[in-house]
Design a protein that fits this description.
Two copies of one chain form a homodimer.
Chain A (H helix, E strand, L loop, with lengths): L1 E12 L3 E13 L5 E4 L9 E3 L3 E7 L5 E7 L5 E14 L9 E3 L2 H10 L9 E9 L2 E8 L5 E10 L1 H14 L3 H4 L5 E9 L1 H9 L3 E4 L2 H13 L2
Parallel strand pairs in A: 11-12, 12-13
Antiparallel strand pairs in A: 1-2, 1-7, 2-3, 3-4, 5-6, 6-7, 9-10, 10-11
Chain B binds a DNA duplex through strand 4, strand 11 and helix 2.
DNA sequence: TATTTAATGTCGACG
DNA sequence: CGTCGACGTTAAATA
């Protein structure tokens, strides 16, 4: 990993064209050839960058300034960095990173709700996780107290897309005689957070919304495991 | 902007929980308080980070190691960085960045198609850009050779969401007597690239698909401007 | 390898 | 300030 602080200007050409006027920035050159150009603000996204796999050629422009040409290996994306003045330039050997361990993403939410379907609606029991249909898997297929089928779509953040997705599943499921024998399939849209528009659309389509409390679910799960 | 290279471990708690085992990494501390933790690989996304607005408190852990506690201002997200050894530590004043200038995004695509609607379908003429409806603006409202209304939805990459969006517009527009007087409103889904699933769904709903060649359109536009 | 889906998405525009 | 849609989305899982 090489870190350079320099007054520079940058031009990108690829899926779009973009330009950065002359200013002082931080350039990170990773060992896989990728380059990040960071300013002292914004979020974690660099102002401009080149993703690996790519190569960097260091050269000199016509006017004598240092010029770095970064080229993507697979596409014809290019990044040109013209350097006026280098303020800092160091390299460090970081080795290979062991990587990030995550907990609390949608998959975990689905696992916990599969264990505790009754938190979505009284008397709900699990039939199957990842119930396959022609257009993809329904997160949870359940049965309610009256024995009717209930399709559950789980999102961390419930937005309009999720409601559309569940609607497509319900349209399809309600044509399946095996499921509709005892009546139509209901839908439940479950998420840690549900956006107003999504809630309106769901309600309009007769789909119930359920807010999920991840910490509470995890607590229930822990309490259960302590019994063994 | 402060740049630190250090052997460290990191714990994040917020919308999820995550952990980084002990390893050598680059820590970027931006002047707005935000922190990025980069390894020597991956793409531009850091292994872990805290977005502004946030504050960093430098302290000492029980075992004597340096400990940085980063707290988000608005949420209760926290990032804890435990430092075993500092290999590098420098600060630089970068000033305010003039920012990135972009060209070639969806807005430009819409401008070009508004100039040349006939590239979407023979005889198509523009009625209005950003035609407002109760659920949002239709990108292009056109009229075909027979004088019938055509709604155009433009995407850079055509996916299933875009088809759903256009479908909602068409449902609404076909209830509008002013437009349906002469017949029903057709839809055209235009994009530089159309995913197979999106194409299937569009076709199933009687929506035409049109692939857009940005460079060709820009060429037509340039040729036109040269006449003046 | 190609495609589909989730994401601590981020970012900008608009009401 | 919140909502919504685009993004050089990126990145991971899956077919």
């Amino acid at each position: 990993m090489r870190i350079v602080v320099a007054r520079c200007q940058v031009d990108y050409a690829g899926r779009l064209t973009a330009h950065l006027p002359l200013a002082t920035r931080v350039l990170m050159l990773k060992s896989d050839g990728s380059v990040l150009i960071h300013s002292d603000g914004g979020s974690y996204k660099p102002l401009n960058w080149m993703s690996p796999p790519c190569t960097v050629r260091e050269g000199v422009a016509e006017d004598g300034r240092a010029e770095w040409l970064v080229s993507a290996t697979k596409s014809d994306d290019t990044l040109r960095i013209l350097i006026d003045e280098v303020l800092h330039d160091t390299s460090h050997d970081l080795g290979v990173d062991p990587g990030l361990q995550k907990d609390g993403v949608e998959k975990h939410l689905q696992e916990l709700l599969a264990e505790h379907p009754a938190t979505l609606a009284d008397g709900l029991t699990l039939v199957r996780r990842e119930y396959m249909t022609a257009i993809g898997p329904v997160d949870l297929m359940c049965r309610d107290a009256e024995g009717l089928s209930v399709a559950v779509e789980i999102k961390r953040r419930g937005e309009i897309d999720g409601v559309e997705q569940l609607t497509r599943y319900l349209d399809l499921l309600n044509r399946d005689p095996a499921l509709t024998r005892k009546g139509s399939v209901r839908g439940i849209f479950a998420a840690q957070e549900i956006k107003p528009q999504a809630r309106v659309l769901a309600t309009d389509r007769g789909i119930a919304c359920a807010l999920v409390d991840y910490d509470a679910l995890r607590g229930m799960d822990d309490a259960e495991h302590r019994l063994f």
